[in-house]
Specification:
The protein is of the alpha/beta class. Helices cover 55% and strands 13% of the residues. 41% of the residues are buried. The mean pLDDT is 92. It binds adenosine-5'-diphosphate (ADP) and thymidine-5'-diphosphate (TYD). The site of adenosine-5'-diphosphate has 15 residues, from helix 1, helix 6 and helix 8.
Length: 208
């Protein structure tokens, strides 16, 4: 997409994505780069409303297919209202999760919807980040961090340890199959050490 640079963070719950997205935004702004820091599900007013529908309530509230449609609708709004305009202004867009999260969570968590996820992505979204940073962490560590944080948005964390393990393996396999776009970074260190490697990786890859 024209102008700016588009970057996503991915990883299991509690891997430290949000922390790293924020630290990277601060570092790039410190270097004088305009940055839009955003997240999914959400990142635009309409998509934030959909966020509440998908993250709160009973884990069986939606069928897997309905949930995929809701995440995709939220992503389309996020793309139209937030991501594309920021890229057109020449900014660095950093999003905490994007389509790879749907490939993992909707694609493999409740039956095999992977081909449906790809088809819907091609139809309705059709873009990938210039760079995706996968923060990799042991699911036990991730889950204990995520549970310590607690809150209303427990639907996915409540799905438990087995799911987190499959997600981690799935993310690593996805990264291995798209080596040009992905960089895998070890999240099991203190946040500043992780952030230093993220910044060096981003500057090397995107020339920012
Ligand atoms: P995510 O967005 O991947 O779920 P967060 O950045 O929200 O992860 O981090 C989850 C929790 O773990 C937060 O309470 C955060 O302060 C803490 N945390 C983040 N990074 C680290 C780290 N490298 N080491 C220890 N704790 C961390
Ligand atoms: P997030 O707020 O990033 O949670 P966390 O900080 O705990 O990682 O995302 C909330 C949940 O939404 C997370 O469990 C993953 C899930 N999710 C999907 O299932 N599909 C998607 O397309 C996206 C973007 C998120």
């Amino acid at each position: 997409m024209a102008g700016g640079r588009f970057l996503s963070f991915e990883g299991i719950d509690g891997s430290g994505k949000s922390t790293q997205a924020r630290l990277l935004a601060e570092a790039l702004r410190g270097l004088g780069r305009p940055v839009t820091l955003t997240r999914e599900p959400g990142g635009s007013p309409g998509a934030e409303e959909i966020r509440r529908l998908v993250l709160e309530g009973d884990p069986d509230r939606w069928s897997a297919e309905t949930e995929l449609l809701l995440f995709t609708a939220a992503r389309r709004d996020h793309l139209e209202r937030t991501i594309r305009p920021a890229l057109a202004r020449g900014e660095v867009v950093i999003t905490d999760r994007f389509a790879d999260s749907s490939r993992m969570y909707q694609g493999i968590s409740r039956g095999d919807l992977a081909s449906l996820v790809e088809a819907l992505h091609a139809l309705m979204i059709g873009v990938e980040p210039d760079l995706t940073v996968l923060i990799d962490i042991d699911p036990e560590v991730g889950l204990s961090r995520a549970l310590a944080r607690k809150g209303a948005e427990q639907r996915f964390e409540d799905m438990g340890q087995g799911l987190q393990r499959r997600m981690r393996d799935g993310f690593l396999a996805l990264a291995a199959s798209h080596p040009g776009r992905f960089r895998v970074i070890d999240g099991a260190r203190d946040p500043q050490a992780v952030a230093a490697e993220v910044l060096a990786t981003v500057r090397a890859h995107l020339g920012v």
